[in-house]
C-alpha cells in the first residue's frame, strides 16, 4: 500500500512537471507559428498538403482545412492525437478507426510542417528518412537512411509526403543542418 501511494505521488508530480514544461513550450511555439516567417511557412505547408489528397470530395475540403488548423494548434499546445480524435468524432459521420487514422496523420503532418519550416529557416535542403522498426511497411523500409530533399517529397504507395506525414507512418525526418559558413 505504501509503495502504491509512493508511485502514485511520483507519477502525479511527473505529470504536473510535464504539463508545466509543455505549457512553456506551447507559449513559445504559439509565438513562432503565429508571428514568425517559420510559422507562416509551416501554415502554408499544411495548407498545400491538401493537393496530395487526390480523391478528396469538394465538400470535405473545408473540413480538412479545419482539421489541419486544429492539428497545428494541437501540436503547438503539446496535445496528443486523442484530443483531435475527439473533435473529429464529434463532427459525426466518421468511423472511430478512420477518426484515429485522421488524427494521427494530421498531427504527423502538422509536426512535419513545423519541422520542415524550421529546417528551411536554417538553410536545410533535406533530411535522412528514419524508420521506427520491424513493423514498418516495405515501401517505407526502402526509404531507410535515404536523403530526401524538402522540395521533392517521395511518392510511396500512391501517396506523396515526407517522413511522418503519411497515413499510419511512424517514420521521422532526421534534419540535415548545414555547416555554418566561416
Short description:
With 182 residues, the protein is mainly alpha-helical.
Q: Keywords, please?
A:
182 residues, mainly alpha, two-stranded antiparallel sheet
Query: Which descriptor suits the 3D outline?
Result: globular
> How many separate helices?
6
How widely separated are the two ends?
62 Å
String of helices and strands: HHHHHEHEEEE
Our count of domains comes out at 2
The percent range for strand residues is 5-15%
Strand order of the largest sheet: 2-1-5
Task: Characterise the protein shown here.
The longest helix has 34 residues, at 2-35. This protein has helices spanning 2-35, 37-48, 61-76, 81-90, 96-121, 138-141, and strands spanning 126-130, 147-149, 155-156, 159-160, 172-175. It has 2 domains: 1-121, no CATH class; 124-182, no CATH class. Strands 2-1-5 form a 3-stranded antiparallel sheet, covered by helices on one side. The protein has a two-stranded antiparallel sheet with strand order 3-4. It is 56% helix and 9% strand. By secondary structure, the chain is mostly helical.
List the helices and strands and how they pair.
Elements: H1 2-35, H2 37-48, H3 61-76, H4 81-90, H5 96-121, E1 126-130, H6 138-141, E2 147-149, E3 155-156, E4 159-160, E5 172-175
Antiparallel strand pairs: 1-2, 1-5, 3-4
Helix pairs in contact: 1-2, 2-5, 3-4, 3-5, 4-5
Amino acid at each position: 500500500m505504501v509503495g502504491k501511494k509512493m508511485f502514485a505521488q511520483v507519477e502525479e508530480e511527473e505529470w504536473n512537471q510535464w504539463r508545466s514544461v509543455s505549457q512553456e513550450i506551447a507559449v513559445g511555439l504559439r509565438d513562432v507559428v503565429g508571428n514568425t516567417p517559420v510559422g507562416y511557412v509551416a501554415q502554408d505547408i499544411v495548407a498545400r498538403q491538401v493537393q496530395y489528397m487526390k480523391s478528396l470530395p469538394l465538400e470535405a475540403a473545408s473540413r480538412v482545412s479545419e482539421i489541419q488548423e486544429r492539428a497545428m494548434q494541437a501540436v503547438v499546445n503539446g496535445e496528443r492525437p486523442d484530443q483531435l480524435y475527439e473533435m473529429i468524432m464529434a463532427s459525426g459521420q466518421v468511423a472511430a478507426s478512420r477518426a484515429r487514422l485522421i488524427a494521427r496523420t494530421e498531427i504527423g503532418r502538422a509536426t512535419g510542417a513545423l519541422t520542415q519550416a524550421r529546417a528551411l529557416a536554417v538553410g536545410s535542403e533535406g533530411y535522412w528518412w528514419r524508420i521506427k522498426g520491424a513493423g514498418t511497411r516495405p515501401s517505407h523500409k526502402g526509404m531507410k537512411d535515404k536523403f530526401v530533399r524538402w522540395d521533392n517529397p517521395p511518392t510511396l504507395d500512391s501517396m506523396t509526403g515526407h517522413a511522418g506525414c503519411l497515413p499510419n507512418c511512424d517514420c521521422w525526418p532526421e534534419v540535415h543542418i548545414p555547416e555554418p559558413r566561416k
